[in-house]
Fold this sequence. Notes:
Elements: E1 6-9, H1 16-27, E2 34-37, H2 41-53, E3 58-62, H3 64-79, E4 85-90, H4 104-107, E5 115-118, H5 122-139, E6 143-148, H6 164-170, H7 194-226, E7 233-236, E8 243-247, H8 251-264, E9 269-274, E10 276-278, H9 282-289, E11 294-299, H10 309-317, E12 326-331, H11 341-353, E13 362-363
Parallel strand pairs: 1-2, 1-3, 3-4, 4-6, 5-6, 8-9, 8-11, 11-12, 12-13
Antiparallel strand pairs: 5-10, 7-9
Helix pairs in contact: 2-3, 5-7, 8-11
Amino acid sequence: MCRPQVVAAYPITPQTPIYEKLAEWDEAGELGGTMMRMESEHSAMASCLAASLTGARTFTATSSQGLALMHEMLHFASGCRTAVVMAIVNRTLAAPWAFWSDQTDSLSQRDTGWLQFYCEDNQESLDTVIQAFRIAEEVLLPVMVMLEANFISHFMEPVEVPEQELVDRFLPPVALPQRFDVDNPGYAVPVVTQNEFREYRKLTQEAMEYSLEVIQRVEKEFAAIFGRSYGLVEAVDCDDAELVILTTATITSTARVALAELRKEGLKVGLFKLRVFRPFPTAAIRAVLDHVPRIAVIERNLSAGREGIFCSEVKAALVNSPGHPRTQGYLSGLGGSNVSPELIKRIAHHALEADSVQDGPIWMAEDIKHATDDTSS
Length: 377
């Protein structure tokens, strides 16, 4: 619906259905652009950024090891100020091998200069991809849209698919700078001095900061046409909260159920959803959480040797907060394990009853009894 002119991709579980659907549309003549079936994810990103430098609207998708293989080209894509949009189906990184939801793959790319959005459900995923092209093509930085493995990629749920004319009204024809011109050749990636490199990085930082304003403006325009809005963040019942549960992506949906039950128990608990991770929405976070006594961050990722990545970032954003919120990280759902309403309620009770904040993360999992036999390890 966004009318991409170039799609370059390579299949990898659990992203493969995206690749297959795009290939199906291409074969039927419904894609509208050119699909390039590449020999690797590294080549897919090289092709996308090159196509973007010619002024084309480009899209790709990957997951896990494929994203890791792209790492070098991710820096090139942002350094060249391209507007590539990429769907990331969050999956565990090896070793050991696993094929379930884990956000460490995309979060390990957080310093590559890409904008990052973490989606809660299929409707938000669809809407965010449409918004991503508008944002990327204005700020000239690439965008990742995160969809969790299986919880989004392989679940089926009703979504409202907009009319093509509405998408065309919201997303006009692409008008990117054409920096590859065979009649006027020049360098797209020159060698620079130390001071020039610093200025390039300064411009990227300024574009990241400016994109916070662009994201919010694009959201308002999207809401006016389609009637749906998500924001940088979302706060639920946080005004009187003694504890706020901070979540991202699909855990948020489950936390909404747990929140309602906790409120029925008479507990003053709120919910805070972090949707945009890069650029980091520090002001939006502080506006809600500055005076909250306690925060419990629940997440599906780990920066080994530290804690969950979202928790570290939230702590940094609130380091000078006048309320000095006690922020504790809880690792739940690593490797795609289940995070039920009951588990979230246990986390809330633990956070409310704890006398102090533990250094490092607290590991929380479902109380599941596993069958054992003589061969189990």
